[in-house]
Amino acid sequence: MSVFDTMRIAASGLTAERFRMDTAASNLANQRSTRTAQGGPYQAVAPVFSAVSLGNDATPGVAVTGVAAVGGDPIRVYDPTHPDADAQGFVSYPDVDVAANMADLMGAARSYSMNATVTAAAKQSATDAIEIGR
């Protein structure tokens, strides 16, 4: 395995973890969104990852293959003054687990940091090899 394979593997991890952070942040930002373009309250999502081959030599990596809806039915709260209240005065809020999304966000940030460290170490290794060759 070459230093470039190491960098490609770490880069695929960086991309995946960034997407994971983006989805968690989106869920947290929309925890009180009662109206979307599709109609109804926001639906929390989670990324779906799969193992992939990077390049012709079957170097392993990770890729985001989609998103899956998570959470249950909307949470109904009585608030007849809200503009999105139904005829009975209930508003439907998305079922977003704030604690789980915060934990996912922190885990993704740590994984992102580790992949960045691997990339920096591989770069330093390549630089050192060039210096030795001079």
Features:
alpha+beta; single chain; 134 residues; two-stranded antiparallel ribbon
Give structural notes.
By secondary structure, this protein is an alpha+beta fold. The chain has one domain. Helix content is 47%, strand content 22%. The protein is built from two helices and four strands. The protein has helices at 3-29, 98-133; strands at 45-54, 59-69, 75-78, 90-93. It has a two-stranded antiparallel ribbon with strand order 1-2. Strands 3-4 form a two-stranded antiparallel sheet. Helix 1 (3-29) packs antiparallel against helix 2. The protein starts with a helix and ends with a helix. The mean pLDDT is 92.
Summarize the structure in short.
The chain is an alpha+beta fold and 134 residues long.
List the helices and strands and how they pair.
Layout: H1 3-29, E1 45-54, E2 59-69, E3 75-78, E4 90-93, H2 98-133
Antiparallel strand pairs: 1-2, 3-4
Helix pairs in contact: 1-2
How much of the polypeptide forms β-strand, as a percent range? Answer: 15-25%
Helical fraction equals 40-55%
Order of helices and strands: HEEEEH
Strand tally is 4
Structural class, please? alpha+beta
Number of helical segments with 4 or more residues: 2
Overall mean confidence score, pLDDT: 92
Report the radius of gyration as a whole number of Å: 21 Å
Query: In whole angstroms, how far apart are the ends?
Result: 23 Å
List unreliable stretches of 5+ residues.
none
Task: Summarize the biggest pleated sheet.
Answer: 2 strands, antiparallel
Number of domains: 1
- Main sheet strand line-up: 1-2
Shape: elongated
